[in-house]
Write a structure and sequence with these properties.
By secondary structure, the protein is an alpha/beta fold. The chain is built from 4 helices and 5 strands. It has one domain. Strand 3 and strand 4 form a beta hairpin. The radius of gyration is 28 Å and the shape is elongated. The structure holds calcium ion.
Length: about 130
């Protein structure tokens, strides 16, 4: 057998071995990606009827955060041996602020009255 023929036989064998090794090394996912995405938006403009309305709103907002209502989502897409993708989305402070404003400003006029703030504070205080 000539050197040329030996090379022709060895090359495909190396390729097959390489592919098998790659699959083995990757475990369950040949293509594996993982990403964390932070999403936020500009804060909506809002005004408060008085100091009490503002204080009640901000106190309730901080209670919402401590209560673990921070919005996070996880997405995992997995096709064994071929593809594995993990995505983690975390929303920013402004998004949570805007969500609180939307809940609190019930008539949507961009002005949080003391009454609206009290209703919002009661909603947040309840489990
Ligand atoms: Ca209002």
């Amino acid at each position: 057998m000539s050197t040329f023929h030996v090379r022709l036989l060895i090359k495909p064998m190396l390729c097959a071995a390489g592919a098998a090794l790659a699959l083995f090394a990757a475990g369950t996912g040949c293509i594996s990606t993982e990403q964390t995405e932070y999403r936020d938006e500009p804060r909506v403009k809002v005004e408060f009827e008085n100091e009490t309305a503002g204080r009640l709103f901000y106190e309730s907002l901080s209670k919402m955060h401590s209560g673990g209502s921070r919005t996070e989502s996880r997405t995992e897409i997995s096709i064994p041996i071929v593809f594995d993708h993990k995505q983690h989305v975390v929303t920013g402070d402004n998004t949570r602020f805007n969500e609180a404003v939307r809940r609190c400003d019930t008539n949507g006029d961009g002005r949080i009255t003391e009454q609206e703030a009290r209703i919002f504070a009661d909603q947040v205080a309840k489990p």
